[in-house]
């Protein structure tokens, strides 16, 4: 580690607690990375081409970065973020980088700052804090690195000590990149995850066409409920053949339903016929979560639910820049009533794993820990998205552990598109967990030998086990 | 204390803060236990029989324990939890104990672990952490203790230094065990509390029959509103004669109502006639909270409201195992609108005490502290159930004190069926409060002499005062 | 500072963190006070008359003080709080003061206690903790001070090192005191802020008459939508001429609307005709927030929204004592849906500043930080009202910084009527922020040089910049 990342980063200041945290961290800092949920591109590992310039790699695609700059008056066009109608945006990586460097102070106190400093220092060997004054020098240093063999995706994958990484791919994806990776002979374990939103959510762009396409791909009759379900089964099997151990569902709410076969069929028919009734469309999404859980019982795929984000809150930003531009805003989310139909159906199954995430921290202690602390099928996903941060992860542990314990949680997800930041994100999570454990030990709530057992479980084992990797 | 419970348990690591916490704890650790709200069996104190084997005492009846094991795939049958239809379950205490010991690591970071270690060590003299390897030895040691005179209920009551303990008994209960205790000449102060859910909640099993029975017991005409209210008054008086100083109400929400006499009478008639209108049934429960508060004004009983739990979330578990099996899940709970009718009616009364509990911590700072910080009749119950834990109690103090102060809170409730764990629970609460006060002192927000005054108030005096004991 | 306020007040106990906090605090403790939002009386600065007796200055008008005493059974009449119907109340300041002193222990752990001790010690030179025993002596000492020239409002303003203070004045106010201040030649900068609730909220007492009066004052036809909007524009311009840089809106919810001109006009006509339809009245308030934001785009006034308080929760207290008696209770507040119409209309404007406050801390991390962390027009107001306290401000930083950063926040508001407590309130805020920064530095999440830059920004610069002062 260089001077940008202190060896004691995120450890409590009190010397006796810090000593314990250091010791625990020593047990986990070099463990392989298990990344069971993320959004890196399989293409990168398949083609193994050099990454583009520093700005295109680190700034332009990272909505954590550009949303903060935008909130302070920086135009997205000046950061090189593409406009849907093709209007010109900044393409000079150096200019984008300078603009970022001038505004880097805005990230003080944010996890982006921690991740970014880690990447600068640990990956690119930069030792001086980024400022407007040294922006060009840093840019050159990084650009130089990116041209080298050892900064290509596969080399980084190995350098990062990634044992396995999952991408997230749509139900209609042919997984060609994944096949190409497997056929390439490269040993890196890159697996897929089944994300069927486009063929499950009637509000998804082009839903009807997506169902037609699903029929073509699978040879199933997606005009009928039975055929539609069969098509899912086929795709799930295909995804499994490309390594998938999980499915992922980005619904707006945690609502589930468990209709009779006849009622589900009738609902499907109305939805297939293009029903615009919002309640029916919601009910269909709700029903499909339960269907997916039932299929998981058969094929063993772990089901992940990520509810609670109001996507694309600003219509004019959506229109100009498209999705994923920082305008996804969390909302108050209910789980107790919402998950009940699914839990009534399959919640007591010991061979099923349903991992629930939340953006509403008020549900941690109130709803999610009590639910996960009793239903065998339910596990808690880690602190997610806005809460994937030191304070967020600390609150997660403080608010879930006493009711759900550690063993109903599933380790860390980096959940990121930002490939270079993956080690930074896991490092932050490991440090925060070690700091939490160190506090428990220092307050005699846990013995040190137990913390030494738990630290690697939180950093590594629980993720492998929960995701069946 | 043995090696399983460190003398500095739960005290902050920073030496100067720890020193203050220790000092404060020294003032309270030996204070008598006031337990104004709980669920131990009056039968135990009446008969004073030996407790059964270690598993039947410590595991089988404790839903904190078996729900966690169940969440990780252990079958309740294997833990000896009785099945309603009489299907066979494990009855060998030793086997149950071993299964528990093998899985004891699951409780790391939970309050159950703290309580359990305290019981093992302080009550049974066990000095070695429980593991699969020593399970049998621990079992034998505990079993041996349980056969001794000094481990009978009354002896433990005295050893625990319990000044007074309240049980919770249904409105139809004859309180025979309480009478027997009083007549026995034993000096232990075991009192009752009036819990009328079965005759107040139209959704309660056998509600209509319960009202008939209430009429028989009291000689009041529970077919009329006036007679029904009179019956409550009689029962309350009878409970008072068995020591009761409080009533307790486990409604699903905090909803209250304050109908005119005529409207209430009409509503009662519809309910008595078996109305299935859910709004009417809710309104009746709401109205009855206000009626109870008005009766409290007359007879001085303290009213406790415990809302916000979705009881028996899993219907198949309810059907197989019955109530109280860990499937009660907290929900988002409103107080500001819900309590208004009751507060409009009696909230300004200085001679009334209404104690409100919550399972929704987001209401602490937002609703409950502001309400208790102005209405003379309202006090805050302690951190409850899932939140009766170190982090939960810390959050309670951090989120309520600045608005409601300490003096609008009512000390600690152990709220437990697990008799042997009562000293452990009070000890944890005392330690957490001392740690909180120590932080205030160390940050010069409170003088040390004030903290020395407050510590015994939080541990002892406030409970006595609030519950009129 | 005297012995009542420790130099290390509110700093973490751990010596290395405390050292950093002290150092940061050293940079800000003497910075001028910028008070962009408050409720002091412009009359005080205009007339510069001596303040009345200690009780009338420090107790009778402070709802933080008397609500706590009331919650513990003290009658407001005995504290000198005026009754609307003119019934007699205590007028002997010394008696009121004694009653307060006897009950001063009730404030342990509250911010009122910190502020009060600061005032006693820093302003009045009292060195002994207030008790019943020394109440009279303290009273005499304060009373003696209040007769001196240097305790008159303008002298205190200067002694407090107030660079600028904003009062809050109704839309119909003639701002005569403000004009008098300006014409007096005194250099103290006292500005106004535009609070149009009385002419924007159809539920406001005398709304129709208020609109007539608005028409008279401005010469606009407030019988028409266009004239009504013009009247606002005129008043805003007039307020600007008396220094206003902001408007303030105390709506019950954060609801906004963005109707077409025709629909808005029609709605206005119905409201002007006295519509009693609650939905229409809500919609009108919602629409007016957006109208105000649009006017802000033109005239540069910063818009403040303060939603989420259920005003005058107790009707009998309202009837007897009037508004602002401690019975305003926070409620669960939505921002994501509520602010959308306004944000859709003007949220992307870089020249607009909308400052949002909340009483619902569960919205900090879930809603407000994500919104402020992307919309250029949106900034987060500081921890407010019940949350303007050490724990409240700490939670504010912990729950907003990681997503919104520091620079989407706007410094501190004292928001107070209690003029003598202004330095105390700013001091507490500065200390809490320094403690927070010190923790970040000690955990290597921020460099010390960055914290040294941030501390004065949080204490001084951000408020000036956000409020355009």
Write a compact overview of the structure shown:
Chain A has 469 residues and is an alpha/beta fold. The first copy, chain A, folds into 2 domains: 15-49 and 161-466, Alpha-Beta Barrel (TIM Barrel); 50-151, uronate isomerase, domain 2, chain A. In chain A, 48% of the residues lie in helices and 7% in strands.
Give short descriptive properties of this protein.
homotrimer; 469 residues; alpha/beta; TIM Barrel; uronate isomerase, domain 2, chain A; 2 domains; four-stranded parallel beta sheet; three-stranded parallel beta sheet; 19 helices; 11 strands; Uronate isomerase (chains A, B, C)
Written description of the protein model:
- Chains A, B, C: It is an enzyme of class 5 (isomerase).
- The structure is a homotrimer of 469-residue chains.
- Chain A has 469 residues and is of the alpha/beta class.
- The first copy, chain A, folds into 2 domains: 15-49 and 161-466, TIM Barrel (Alpha-Beta Barrel), CATH 3.20.20; 50-151, uronate isomerase, domain 2, chain A (Orthogonal Bundle).
- Helices cover 48% and strands 7% of the residues of chain A.
- In chain A, helix 16 links the parallel strand 10 and strand 11.
- Chain A is globular and about 65 Å long.
- The mean pLDDT of chain A is 97.
- Chains A and B meet through helix 15, helix 16, helix 17, helix 18 and helix 19 of A and helix 4, helix 6, helix 14, strand 9 and helix 17 of B.
């Amino acid at each position: 580690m260089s001077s940008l990342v202190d060896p004691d980063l995120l450890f409590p200041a009190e010397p006796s607690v810090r000593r314990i945290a250091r010791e625990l961290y020593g047990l986990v800092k070099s463990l392989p990375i298990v990344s069971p949920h993320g959004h890196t591109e399989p293409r990168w590992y398949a083609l193994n081409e050099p990454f583009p310039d520093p700005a295109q790699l680190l700034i332009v695609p990272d909505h954590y970065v550009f949303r903060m700059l935008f909130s302070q008056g920086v135009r997205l066009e000046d950061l090189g973020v593409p406009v849907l109608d093709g209007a010109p945006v900044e393409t000079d990586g150096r200019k984008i980088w300078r603009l970022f460097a001038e505004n880097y102070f805005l990230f003080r106190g944010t996890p982006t700052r921690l991740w970014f400093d880690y990447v600068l220092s640990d990956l690119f060997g930069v030792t001086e804090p980024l400022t407007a004054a040294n922006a060009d020098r840093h840019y050159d240093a990084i650009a130089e690195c990116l041209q080298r063999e050892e900064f290509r995706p596969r080399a980084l994958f190995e350098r990062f000590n990634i044992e396995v990484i999952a991408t997230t791919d749509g139900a209609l994806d042919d997984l060609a990149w994944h096949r190409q990776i497997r056929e390439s002979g490269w040993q890196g374990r890159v697996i897929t995850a089944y994300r069927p939103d486009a063929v499950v959510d009637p509000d998804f762009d082009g839903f009807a066409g997506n169902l037609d396409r699903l029929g073509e791909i699978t040879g199933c009759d997606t005009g009928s409920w039975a055929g539609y379900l069969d098509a899912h089964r086929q795709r799930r099997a295909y995804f499994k053949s490309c390594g998938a151990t999980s499915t992922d569902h980005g619904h707006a709410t945690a609502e589930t339903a468990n209709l009779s076969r006849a009622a589900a069929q009738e609902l499907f028919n109305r939805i297939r016929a293009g029903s615009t009734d919002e309640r029916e469309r919601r009910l269909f999404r709700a029903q499909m979560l339960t269907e997916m859980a039932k299929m998981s019982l058969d094929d063993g795929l772990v089901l992940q639910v990520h509810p609670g984000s109001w996507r694309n809150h600003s219509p004019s930003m959506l229109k100009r820049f498209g999705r994923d531009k920082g305008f996804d805003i969390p909302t108050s989310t209910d789980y107790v009533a919402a998950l009940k139909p699914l839990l009534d159906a399959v919640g007591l199954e010991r061979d099923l794993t349903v991992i629930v995430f939340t953006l509403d921290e008020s549900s941690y202690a109130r709803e999610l820990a009590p639910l996960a602390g009793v239903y065998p099928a339910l596990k808690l996903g880690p602190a997610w998205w806005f809460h994937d941060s030191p304070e967020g992860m600390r609150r997660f542990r403080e608010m879930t552990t006493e009711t759900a314990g550690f063993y109903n949680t599933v380790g860390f997800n980096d959940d990121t598109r930002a490939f270079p930041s993956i080690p930074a994100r896991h490092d932050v999570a490991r440090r925060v967990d070690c700091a939490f454990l160190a506090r428990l030990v220092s307050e005699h709530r846990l013995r040190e030998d137990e913390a030494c057992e738990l630290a690697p479980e939180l950093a590594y084992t629980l993720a492998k086990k929960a995701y069946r990797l």
